[in-house]
């Protein structure tokens, strides 16, 4: 059985919401993800394929994704 944390890492990105200020609209229009905001953090949830593409997009636009 796969480790739950590895599955979670492949299906979500958690970032401070302010880092999405410059790319937020383009990001939301381009990817099929759910963005949940809580306590100043945005949890971006999607399929592993969408999360990988979203992570690459954010990195190309200067957002550090760990």
Please characterize this protein's 3D structure.
The chain is α+β, with helices and mostly antiparallel strands. It has one domain (4-60). It is 42% helix and 23% strand. It has three helices and three strands, in the order H-E-H-E-E-H. Strands 1-3-2 form a three-stranded antiparallel sheet. Strand 2 and strand 3 form a beta hairpin. The protein is globular and about 35 Å long.
Strand content: 15-25%
The percent of residues in helical segments reads: 40-55%
As a whole number of angstroms, the C-alpha radius of gyration is 12 Å
Question: Largest sheet, if any?
Answer: 3 strands, antiparallel
Distance between the termini: 25 Å
Number of structurally distinct domains:
1
Structural class: alpha+beta
Average of pLDDT: 86
Shape: globular
The succession of helices and strands, N to C, reads HEHEEH
Number of helices: 3
Number of strands: 3
Which stretches are low in confidence, meaning pLDDT under 50 for 5 or more residues running? none
Strand order of the largest sheet: 1-3-2
């Amino acid at each position: 059985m796969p480790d739950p944390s590895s599955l979670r890492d492949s299906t979500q990105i958690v970032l401070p919401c302010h880092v999405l200020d410059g790319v937020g609209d383009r990001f939301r229009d381009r990817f099929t993800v759910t963005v949940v905001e809580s306590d100043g953090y945005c949890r971006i949830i999607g399929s592993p394929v969408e999360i990988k593409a979203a992570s690459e997009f954010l990195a190309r636009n200067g957002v550090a994704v760990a």
